[in-house]
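Dear Dr. H.,

I hope your travels went smoothly. While you were away I took the liberty of generating a structure for the chain from your last submission, since the lab meeting agenda had it listed for discussion. I wanted you to have the full record in hand beforehand rather than looking at slides cold. The sequence, exactly as received, is reproduced here:
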Amino acid sequence: MDLVFNLETNFFNFFWDVSNSMYVASQDLFAFEISSKISEVSYYFANNELFFLYEIFYKTSCFFLVMELFLSNVLDAFLNNVAIYFELDEPALRRYISFMDPTLFSIYHPETNFIQKSLNNTAYLNFFSSFKLNLAVFLDKNNIIEPLNYLLQISFWIYFIIFFSMLFLSFFTKNKEEFQIDIEHSFINLSSEAEKEIFSVDDALNLLFFLLFFFGVYFGFLFLSLHSAFTELFVFFLPLLFIFYFIVLIPFNLLFDFGLFFVVYLRGSSNTSSLFFECVYDYIGVIAFFTRLLVQFVRLVLMFVVYCMMHDTVMLQNYSQKNFLIGDSFIDELTSVQPTGYSIGCFLFVVFPLRLFYWCYEVMHTFFVVTVQFSAFFTIVFWLFLLFYTFFVYEKYEHHFDNITKKTKKSN
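The corresponding predicted structure, in token form, is as follows:
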């Protein structure tokens, strides 16, 4: 019995120490002090009309609180199942008293159970997870926008993950059937036409896709998200990563196909008969290509600045500024108009046209800057890609498809 009890005691001590250390660490990392400081920083950004940074810090503080709440709930469940509902005899109970925390006073003093009953149902060792959960449910029970918003964002995110994964994996297929050859031949023809005419079909499709992604998705999710979702993460930062990923990785994919010593299989760019100088010129061309590619990302920085300006404008004009304690928003001004002939006429013929003109100016200015920069960015990058593509691959692919065409004609 003593051996069994010692094992139970060691088992309980181990899990108790692990759980307590987890909660102490969570309090140090995710507790209310850290969250309150981050929240103060977020409201500082809000007071200075930096709403872009406000949303990021606000959601960070909420994330810390959610993590602390989750760990509190886990520790409460552990304490409730192991310590309270554990069947103990009197000697065992006295042995446990020697190492239990004194805040478990109601467990080994039954006379206090009547007084501590309600507290024990909601709090053990000041974790208070049930109280926090009840408070969260009370605050969010009528909130329908947030679940719908997260559902839309998750479904949208899953859709683009599947789409881009299928698109990217199609470049690595080893299938050499006839329909795949026809697709590759069509793609090569489009690339050939694009080399002659820069703004071709594939340029326009890429440009149109990203423009629709920036404007349509931005305003759509901004309308649903209010101030409770990572709008910037889904709308701006992730598209930038996708752009960088695809534009830079496709040339790397070509290098990967030919191997590190790809110049052995190619004629090279120099006219000299020396293999050493041909290799040097080829690698210099590759380094120059990627250097020019990285320089073009300065245009994305300019688009980022314009995007932040439009975002702050939308936040300032559309959101209820009572949340930020800054002035009045357009919606507040609309609802505060007194129903008189003069006020309605002034609002309809003076205030509303000016606001509408200002909104049109912001949207068109952003659209113009983003369109011009995207056009220049994709045109130059695509030209560099074609230069790199023609430099190493195009001639070999052209001979390959010519041979396939000749074989097909002979077989027919």
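Two observations you may find useful: The chain is about 80% helix and 0% strand. The mean pLDDT is 59.

With kind regards,
E. W.
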